[in-house]
Amino acid sequence: MQVITCTECGAKNRVDETKLAAGAAQCGRCKTRLIASDTSRPTTVTDATFNGSVLQAAGPPTLVDCWAPWCGPCRAIAPVLDQLAAESRGRYRIAKLNVDENPRVAAEYSISSIPTMLIFKNGKLIDRIIGAVPKTAIVARLNSAI
Q1: Is the model's pTM score more than 0.90?
Q2: Active site residue 9
Q3: Cα 141 to Cα 48: distance, rounded to the nearest angstrom
Q4: I want to staple 132 with a disulfide (CB 3.0 to 4.6 A). Which of 77, 87, 99, 141 is the partner?
């Protein structure tokens, strides 16, 4: 069993890990789908996990960093995204998508230059940031999504 705090109502829920992994866990108070993720660091999403991790995620917004290992600006912005994840305190989530290894999602969202950061809220794309922008600009966009 694991204790997960609901991002919507703040209720603490004791949840079976198998239900959590299967995406079947929900808050006992408000019925929001519970997600087991450590928001203090970026998570990795793939073509296979994107739908469940990003599009079906309720609660705080998710910033998806579309990057590639050979991209210099992507490597330069990575520590900033690590800092943002550590500072998030559950207000938002940071995820990373390697576009070379996951072409389906990259094509679906027309990622033609990297780094591109996509901000999703309740499964909908609400903002797009292109290029290695300063941390303050990313924070401002995330705060407007909250």
Answers
A1: no
A2: no
A3: 27
A4: 77
